[in-house]
Amino acid sequence: MTYVRVAALGELEEDTPKRVEIEGTPVSIVRTGGEVFAIHDICSHANVSLSEGEVEDCAIECWLHGSTFDLRTGKPSGLPATRPVPVYPVKIEGDGPDASVLVSITQES
């Protein structure tokens, strides 16, 4: 598995998604509840960016139609989305706000 540095931990605001691209793949990085998650940034129901939505209870909401996706599994919790979105492994290297947030898109979780 190949990991790519996407941000410093201190650059990620709690419950505020950050959109990044890794080798052309849009990914939303979310820091919530003391953990960092990486989820494909495009809603499986409509072609819109999940990073523009809100985060609550370890889920991200699609701003367009209100579907929410579990940040741990990518599974939707309600309509209109019925298909999950990919989630990606995350590693944190180092300590404090300068710690590196690394994501791998070569293998989905």
From TrEMBL:
CDD domains, A to Z: Rieske_RO_ferredoxin
InterPro entries: Rieske_2Fe-2S (IPR017941), Rieske_2Fe-2S_sf (IPR036922)
Gene Ontology MF term list: 2 iron, 2 sulfur cluster binding; metal ion binding; monooxygenase activity; oxidoreductase activity, acting on paired donors, with incorporation or reduction of molecular oxygen
Pfam families per the UniProt record, alphabetical: Rieske
Residue ranges constituting the Rieske domain according to the UniProt record: 4-99
Keywords, in A-Z order: 2Fe-2S, Iron, Iron-sulfur, Metal-binding
Protein name stated in the entry: Rieske (2Fe-2S) protein
Species whose genome carries this gene: Streptomyces caatingaensis
